[in-house]
Amino acid sequence: DIVYLDSHFVPKEQAKISVFDRGFLFADAVYEVTAVIDGQLIDFNGHFQRLQRSCKELGLSLPITKELLVDVHHELIEKNNLHEGLIYLQITRGADSSRFFDFPSSSVPSTIVAFVQHSTVVNHPNAKKGISVISVEDIRWQRCDIKTVALLAACLAKHHAHQQGADDAILIKDGYITEGSSSNFFIVNRDNEIITRPLSQDILPGITRQAIIQLAQEEGLKITERRFTLDEAKKAKEAFISSATTLIWPVISIDNEDINQGAVGHLSQRLRDIYLDKAL
Ligand code: PDD
Question: Is pTM beyond 0.95 here?
Answer without folding.
Answer: yes
